[in-house]
Amino acid sequence: MKKQLTSLLGSTVLSIGFCLLMLFAVIWVLGSLGERSGTDVTITFDQGHGVGVGGEVRCRGIVVGRVSDVRLDGEGVQVDVTLALPSRSRLMREGTRWWIDRPMVEWSGVGGLDGAFSDRVIEVDPGLSEGAIVRGFRGLDEPPVLSQYQPGDLPLTLIASKRGSLQRGASVLYRGVRIGTILETDLAENASSVEARILIERRFAPLVRRNSRFYEAGVLDLDLGFTGLRARLDSLETLMVGGVSLVTPDAPGERVDPEARFVVETEEDDDWAAWRPLIPLED
Predict the structure, then answer these.
(1) What is the spatial distance between Cα 213 and Cα 68, in angstroms, rounded to a whole number?
(2) Cβ atoms of 68 and 82 closer than 8 Å
(3) Which residue range(s) make up the domain with 216?
């Protein structure tokens, strides 16, 4: 009887051991498959700017992956990235932006200093969570003015006869308060005008109405009259960097949809200075 119990116990231990071994094998295989799927993310850049294998991939200051391969391609440089498992479903979405963090000196300031004293880092800003899964991306040629957008921010397009004070990184002002940023400027498709993409912060989005007006803020306006010399300047920042100001009438029109277009005036109309609309801001 004792011999039978010993044999039965030995068989049970072997069975349990075999089951545990199979469980570990399944976990290892699934993990390996998961790791291989992350290496399929490929970003194409015009220039590599010193990115190397093993370099970090960061999202909002957190390391979310590593560079697994860098190679030359007919279109530029292709960078393969392995993402950490918790980040894949969010970062492999259409609309995700990728760029190489590197030192940049512009009128609006100096950025990317971390990349001046350490290995190059790839930064990523997630796309919409409901976007389609994408494994190939086109990287940005230069770091964006804003590293990330917030839900509710209002993108708009401004149209001007010349660039003037529409400088990348400059402010969008309302009564001298910064409410947004000029993201980029470029010629229109037919080269007849200049177009600037701007982003109004979510809290200030209600200020922009269909009957709102934009005008150049980085202009020093001198007026010599009977009362002496009078100057108009929104701020020293706008004189150095540029920017635009927004005004809205006392009877505000309807709110605008994202990507609405406005013409930029070269100067403020005298009547606009008297406008005092009561517009509740978003929390």
Answers:
(1) 49
(2) yes
(3) 154-274
